[in-house]
Amino acid sequence: MAGKFLLEGKSIYAPVFPSSLPRPVEIPREEGRSTDKLNPNLNSPFTALLLSPLALLNYPAAFWIWSLLSLAAGMWGFSLIYAETWKKDYEPASLINSWILLLMYFPTWVTVASGQFSLFLVLMLAIVWKTAKRGEDHIAGILLGLAVSLKIFMGIFLIFFAVRRRWRLLLWSLAAVMVCNLLGWLICGIDSYLDYLKVLGGVTWHADSRNASFTGFFTRIFGGSNNMPLWALPQLSRALSVICSSLLMLGVIWLSWPRRRENPLARFDLGFSLSIVAMLLISPLGWMYYFPALAIPLLVSWRVSESVSSTPWDKVIISLAWIFSTVPHLLITSAQMNHPWDWFIWAGFHFYALLLFAGLLLSLSARLDKAVSGQLSANRSLLTAHSSLKKSPP
User: Fold this and answer.
1) Positive or negative, the Cα torsion across 224, 253, 146, 131?
2) What is residue 96's predicted lDDT score, i.e. its pLDDT?
3) Gap between the Cα atoms of 313 and 316, Å rounded
4) Handedness of CA 294, 295, 300, 306 (dihedral sign)
5) d(CA 53, CA 10)
6) CA atoms of 374 and 273, how far apart (whole Å)
7) Distance between alpha carbon 85 and the CA centroid of its chain, in Å?
């Protein structure tokens, strides 16, 4: 609809009413949310510009084209992720395994049913991850800039690459962001960007059950959304979200920081994986339909756990995190999010999945440092022993 408004010369953030849609739409009745129109468009003007060609088609045709392209992008992305993680053991059957992983995943179908960008972002992340490790900064940077222009929370990877001191890649990313948004500004107008910021600031449904972020979890308990919380302390909710987000961001920086002596590929993979998890926890709109990107943390943590001093609990935690992330449930809106069962169980599973992934990745990083230090100590001991033998008289 935003693309259609753009082609008609209207504001792309104009309200969308059910009567303007091609078929009847049931609007959930929720306190504090209008019942005569759909939720406002939370996508950037550049997104509307990118999708405007689909607005030339009727809605069913546009939706089918988008859905099939989305699934194709997801399958391509998963095959790249699987191949990059298991290079030595990768066989044609592994391609089928990667697609089964995607197609049996509940967030995949939420993504397709709601027409989200998520699977395109998975493909972009997979290519950025692969090309950045190979030093192809121009490809990684341009794709990352495009992803940031589509979804602003992807900007966490700009911090990740800054910590990794990948300056050329960052310059390519920033250049791509500037070009994309300059196009959006020239075609959509500066007012569209002002409206975009206004719409983002007006979100009041953080407590919806499919929001897996810190903000989503804490507003259910302490308020700040449209629900009836346990304690009406919205300031505490915001404070806890900021504190937890800041601590997790420090964890990303610590994990990603280059060491003098390290396993550079494992360090890069762990930092990239934690950035994905942090992106979903820190963004106030970390919805579970972005969860297909967790395939990277899933496979990276599984592989790294086999190369460090691991315990049987590592595989258990990885499995639990993935299972929690795919627990299916119908959407519980913020106004209906009024019972501890919903706060801590149905709406909690996806949040707990992200916490498990974050804790495990940080633990694996600490053990990787310890393993590298132990190897260096062993090498020094061998050198010392060898020197002593050479100095000993025959």
Assistant:
1) negative
2) 87
3) 5
4) positive
5) 16
6) 25
7) 18
pLDDT tens across 201-224, in order?
888 888 899 999 999 999 999 988
**Among 54, 56, 52, 66, residue whose Cα is nearest residue 187:** 52
- Higher-scoring residue by pLDDT: 172, 37: 172
Exposure string over 201-233, b if 16+ CB within 10 A, otherwise e: eeeebbbbbbbbbbbbbbbbbbbbbbbbbeeeb
Look at residues 354, 301, 319, 364 and name the one whose alpha carbon lies nearest to residue 81. 301
Model confidence band, residue 386 (pLDDT cutoffs 50, 70, 90): very low
Token pair recorded at residue 187: 């075609």
Backbone angles phi and psi of 30, in degrees to 5: -140, 130
Residue 22 has pLDDT above 80, yes or no: no
Determine the average pLDDT of the residues in 254-262.
Answer: 84
Question: In whole numbers, what is the pLDDT of the chain averaged over residues?
Answer: 87
Cα 123 to chain centroid, rounded: 12
Q: Domain ranges for the chain, please list them.
A: 205-380
Measured in whole angstroms, the distance separating CA 295 from the mean position of its chain's CA atoms is 10
Which tokens hold the place of 152? 């602003």
Sequence length of the chain is 394
pLDDT tens digits for 6-18? 988 888 888 887 7
Tokens of 67: 């859905």
